[in-house]
Design a protein that fits this description.
heterodimer, A: about 70 residues, mainly alpha, globular, B: about 400 residues, alpha+beta, nine-stranded antiparallel β-sheet, six-stranded mixed β-sheet, about 30% helix, about 35% strand
Chain lengths: ~70, ~400
């Protein structure tokens, strides 16, 4: 999902955010995934921008989750 | 309506080159009017002057094309490559094209991209396919950021291609422009609405030669430390053996020019699944930090990467193959090519051969483009769109 960061960094960012939101580590519902991305989107620089892009793509592809 | 592509490359003053290119394009297109023209100019021909001369020299009567442009580190067509020249790519056919420029990128990437997209409609009835060409200041250090923001604002279904303006490796100032508005620290966009999908091919030819190391301190596009040590020290240490085997002695590097040429041979890469996204170092700062062409977040593992002339030619062919495959059995009218300037350094006098390989792979069609400080390619399923050391090409189907 956060391809611009590279796999390792993306996994690290996602894992830390999921943990901070007390979400399950292995499977998220769509609303949880969007909240994870929205949380990361508040980060400065490329990390935040990457998450905003990922969220924009997800919202367009998951219309039921809006 | 069949699509026709016209290309040209000219030297001389900006005005001479602009006028000559307008004449060459008109000669090749005959009675047709181009919908889009790209002009890629060396610093010997200021982009604003080239654009003005070109636009003034267009045959009267037809609809004015969107004219998009950038300053370069080299220019080429399928007939050969040059420096100190202007290359032009023009496409005529059933298209609707709109463009814009936004600035400043520094400190306000989103505002600049939003401004560039402001005059571009969301849709055009009867033209379901949308392809955006994005040209970005190559020294802004915001290549990925601008690409992803543009993609997010444009929405799914819009494919992006383009590249970073260059300045012949002076690393002082680059320019982008659209329809007479030429700026630095800016982004220029042309949106092509078409009845048939265009094709975007992208490929690099680099491989890792180091284990992963971690960016431990950075800010935006500046990497201060790798594995807890000054970035430049680590860069030299990890590339020394490879450089010596390539006949280069890093101990003999003197000044910015030597350092830049060294960076162009030994890049970094970020692993994404089985592939690597290349991230090009551009500047060694006085504090031994290294400036890149896009953001490099702390905690990112990087590998050191290199390539060979053979792999560079193969990757150019592969990029063309990928684009060709997207067009199915249809003939190609021509292609716009954005090629990383470092590839010429690797290929040396074989660069022309790589360009001709692209044209041949597409069916012996006209191509034109420039050597850039970074490349952009983002198809609908991609989650990252900024590349380095890459060939990106936008191929136009001939249509009926």
């Amino acid at each position: 999902m956060l391809g611009a960061l590279g796999e390792a960094k993306a996994r690290d960012v996602l894992a830390k955010t999921i943990q901070s939101l007390s979400f399950p580590a292995h499977e998220l519902e769509r609303w949880q995934a969007l909240l994870v991305l929205e949380t990361i989107a508040a980060e400065p620089g490329l990390i935040g921008i990457t998450a905003r892009f990922a969220k924009a793509r997800a919202v367009m592809r998951w219309p039921a989750a809006r | 309506m069949e699509t026709v592509v016209a290309v040209g490359i000219e030297k001389g003053s900006a005005a001479e080159a602009g006028r000559a290119l307008a004449a060459r394009i008109a000669e090749q297109l005959g009675a047709r009017s181009p919908a889009l023209v790209t002009l890629f100019a060396s610093l010997s021909q200021p982009l604003d002057e080239v654009m003005a001369a070109f636009r003034a020299a267009l045959p009267p009567g037809g609809p004015a094309p969107v004219v998009l442009g950038a300053s370069t580190a080299g220019e080429f067509t399928h007939e050969g490559d040059e420096t100190g020249a202007v290359s032009a790519f023009a496409v005529s056919g059933d298209f609707r094209v709109f463009g814009g420029v936004g600035r400043p990128l520094a400190g306000s990437v989103e505002q600049a991209v939003t401004q560039a997209l402001a005059g571009i409609p969301i849709e055009q009835e009867g033209y379901p396919h949308r392809t955006a060409i994005l040209l970005i200041d190559g020294l802004a250090g915001a290549g990925e950021e601008a690409t992803l923001i543009a993609a997010a604002l444009l929405g799914p279904g819009v494919r992006l291609c383009g590249g970073c303006a260059a300045d012949e490796w002076r690393l002082q100032k680059t320019f982008v422009g659209c329809d007479g508005v030429v700026e630095s620290d800016a982004v220029a966009v042309a949106m092509i609405f078409s009845k048939e999908p265009l094709a975007i091919g992208v490929r690099h030819g680099h491989e890792p030669f180091s284990q992963a190391m971690t960016i431990t301190r950075s800010h935006d596009n500046v990497v201060n430390e790798i594995d807890g040590r000054p970035a430049w020290d680590v860069f030299l240490e990890k590339t020394r053996e490879r450089a010596l085997s390539d006949g280069l002695d890093p101990a003999s590097l003197q000044g910015n020019s030597d350092t830049l040429r060294y960076f162009l041979k030994y890049e970094t890469g970020v692993k994404n699944g089985p592939e690597f996204r290349i991230r090009m170092p551009l500047v060694r700062n006085s504090d031994d930090s290294i400036g890149f062409t896009c953001g490099m977040p702390e905690g990112t593992p990087i590998h050191f990467m290199a390539s060979t002339p053979e792999r560079q030619i193969e990757s150019a062919r592969d990029a063309a193959k990928r684009a060709r495959a997207q067009l199915g059995t249809g003939a190609v009218a021509g292609a716009l090519v954005i090629d990383c300037a470092c590839r010429k350094l690797i290929l040396e006098d074989q660069f022309g051969s790589a360009v001709r390989t692209i044209a041949a792979e597409l069916g012996g069609v006209p191509i034109a483009g420039f050597e850039s400080y970074g490349e952009i390619a983002l198809n609908d399923d991609d989650m990252s769109g900024f590349h380095n050391t890459t060939t990106v090409l936008l191929a136009f189907p001939k249509g009926k």
